[in-house]
Amino acid sequence: MELDRAVEELLQRRMLHRTRTGYAFATPLMREAAYAGVSKAELAERHAALARWAAPADEAAVGTVGGFTDEARDDFVATHVERTAALADAVKLRPDAPARAVVPLGVAALGRAARRSLSAGEPAMAVEYAERATELARDGVPAADRIVHARALLQIGRVVDALAYAEKIAANAGDEAIRASAQLLAGQAQQTLGDQSRAVAAWQEALQVATAGGLPTLRASAMRRLGMADFVAGRLSQASSRLAAAYQVSLGAQDRRGQAWSLQNLAWVTTTRGDFAGTDAVLGRAARLFAELKDPYGRAWLRGTTAFARLLAGRLREACRMAQVFLPFGERVGEAWAVGTLRAVAAFATAELGELAEADREARRAYREFAAASDDWGRGFALVVRAVVARGLGEPEHAADLLTDALAYAEQTSHPLLTGMAGTLRGFVALDMGDCETAERVARAVLTAVEPHNPQAPAQVAPRVLLATARLAAGDAATAVGLLAPVATAAASAPSLLFSRRQTMARYASALLAHGQREQALDWARRAVTAPAEDVRSQVIAASVLAEALAACGRPEEALSCAEEAVRLAYATEQRSERAAADALRARLATAD
Predict the structure, then answer these.
(1) Which of 204, 247, 375, 513 is the 20 to 30 Å CA partner of 219?
(2) Which residues share a beta bridge with 272?
């Protein structure tokens, strides 16, 4: 009753007002006035008592005190401990005064808040909580909380500070789990700074410490980092083996989060090999695990990985949408490699859809981000996308120059995907310039280079189509038909890596037509037009080949209609590369009619 009367009086005097969760003083000055008759020492004791009342007895009791949510409880405890400490300092209470004994409660509350913010993808908030804990704790915060602080610093772009924190923690850690965690974090910071060799060394040390200490969760995490380092370096077999082993370690430890991350990482390898069914399987399993865990960070990363897989499978609009959903999250949490890669993925998809100005802008930005991190794989990938744009603009010479530079990065990294993309596109650009000899040479070089990496059939379609098209351009229609028959048949039922099914089938129809097999050519040309594909080029080529097949089969009116459709498609977007050929075909068929 005394409390109620006091509260009512403060409300009437407008010193206090109601809030959604209780009451609050109108201003700091009103708070001081209300407590004017209470000494600072007594106030410190009262704040300390409130902190003790709200703080859980142990971590297992989190969320069970006073009806608080976890967030509200930790904020309440931390705020009252901070006020206790400030008042205790103001009146110079002894170090052993009871009021000062609540400081660990505030440090623990701020540590929980920092971990929660980091898991929710809010690293800036995590840094704020960690810095408050550091200021509060005269004797230093627990090592696990310092790891969280360092990780949050890395994610907000304070990479040098994060590295210094991590290395200091690792050097002074007596606990193997803390040391391994710090080494993992130091490796991420080194990678962000562009020093991949030191990053790998840090992760290898983390793996050794975790293995020796019997720490399966940290051991699997180190294996995943090393597996992705193998992937970026083009060592797909090693990456696949290490990531699969990491999954088994997490499975044995019943670590569902580790299982999800292992599967997510493994998807980069399977999709690069053209194993789209395997990729869908591992991504689906990872998605279920992240959903069960209610892990927003993992789910955001999974969208990024899925965008990469969708691009390689030719699902351009889905790839673009998912990449653009990931980018703000990736930028917020400082995932530089993922942001650069997914920006290039979105640009690649956008370019293939004919939106070349936007694609060029984003590809250039991705290149700058990779250059800042000294990432050769990323620079090569971004140059390939810029070459796609240049080719779409009808500038084959510029595209060839960009691809020459991309191939130099591919040679440095020995990455089969980069080698295949840059080499195959360089061959098609050579055909655009009428150089079928270079196109054939490049096609054979690509097939030879990717063979040791156990590519599945979908990953070999583009260079095989290039080789066949080069033979066709050289006048060898029989060889072209022989090369294209199996890949066109496969394309009728399954996607191929970075090359549309529609264009594969259209190229086969063109080879059949050149070989004198008109009816078969018309059948394949019709199938090509109805095949699933989103890229502009394959739509124009398929309509043009169908027009030629119809003309060859004595159907001039239908042929001219298809030629006009090819022209419409060629002019429907910013892509200009197919316009001259489409115009020429329509003019020729119109004259013949």
Answers:
(1) 375
(2) none
How far from chain centre, in Å, is Cα 62?
A: 33
Decide: helix, strand or coil at residue 23: strand
How is residue 467 written in tokens?
Answer: 């080789």
**Tokens 């009367």 sit at which residue?**
5
Is beta strand 16-19 parallel, antiparallel or unpaired with respect to 22-25?
Answer: antiparallel
pLDDT of residue 58: 62
60 pLDDT higher than 60: no
Question: What are the backbone dihedrals phi and psi of residue 499, each rounded to the nearest 5 degrees, phi first?
Answer: -150, 125
Residue 314 token pair: 């030719």
Helix (H, G, I), strand (E, B) or coil at 573: coil
Nearest to 414 by CA among 244, 264, 239, 263: 239
Judge whether residue 64 has pLDDT over 50: no
- 332-358 pLDDT, tens digit per residue, is 877 888 889 999 999 999 999 999 999
Question: In this predicted model, what pLDDT tens digit does every residue of 384-443 receive, in sequence order?
Answer: 999 999 999 999 999 999 999 999 999 998 899 999 999 999 999 999 999 999 999 999
Work out the burial of residue 189: count CB atoms within 10 Å of its CB; fewer than 13 is exposed, 13-18 middle, 19 or more buried.
buried
Encode pLDDT of 32-58 as tens digits: 777 777 788 888 888 888 888 888 766
CA dihedral 418, 419, 420, 423 (to 10 degrees): 120
The answer to whether the CB of 118 falls within 8 A of the CB of 89 is no
As a dihedral over the C-alpha atoms of residue 474, residue 475, residue 477, residue 478, rounded to 10 degrees, the angle is -90
Distance CA 129, CA 404 (A): 49
Q: Which residues pair with 499 in a beta bridge?
A: 496
Q: How many CB atoms lie within 10 A of CB 528?
A: 31
CA distance 369 to 330: 13
Task: Give, in degrees to the nearest 5, the angle at Cα 151 between 148 and 155.
Answer: 135
What kind of architecture, by CATH, is found in domain 200-297?
A: Alpha Horseshoe (1.25)
Alpha carbon distance 369, 373 (integer Å): 7
- Intrachain domains 200-297 and 489-495+502-593 with the same fold: yes
Return the pLDDT at 184: 97
Q: What is the C-alpha separation between 346 and 148, in angstroms, rounded? A: 31
Q: For residue 589, report the phi and psi dihedrals to the nearest 5 degrees.
A: -70, -35
Using an 8 Å Cβ cutoff, are 513 and 547 in contact? no
> Which residue type, as a one-letter code, is found at position 153?
L
User: Measured between alpha carbons, how far is 283 from 265 in angstroms, rounded to an integer?
Assistant: 9
- The mean-pLDDT minimum among 300-304, 406-410, 426-430, 515-519 falls in 300-304
CA-nearest of 497, 496, 570 to 537 is 570
For residue 434, how many other CB atoms are within 10 A of its CB?
10
Q: How many angstroms separate the CA atoms of 561 and 591, rounded?
A: 13
The torsion angles phi and psi of 496, rounded to 5 degrees, stand at -125, 160
CA distance 259 to 252: 10
pTM, full prediction: 0.84
Per-domain residue ranges for the chain? 20-161, 200-297, 489-495+502-593
Question: CA 232 to CA 191: how far, in whole Å?
Answer: 12
Strand partners, 205: none
Q: How many CB atoms lie within 10 A of CB 177?
A: 17
Nearest Cα residue to 136 out of 154, 114, 155, 152: 114
Confidence (pLDDT) at 40? 82
Superfamily of domain 489-495+502-593: Tetratricopeptide repeat domain (1.25.40.10)
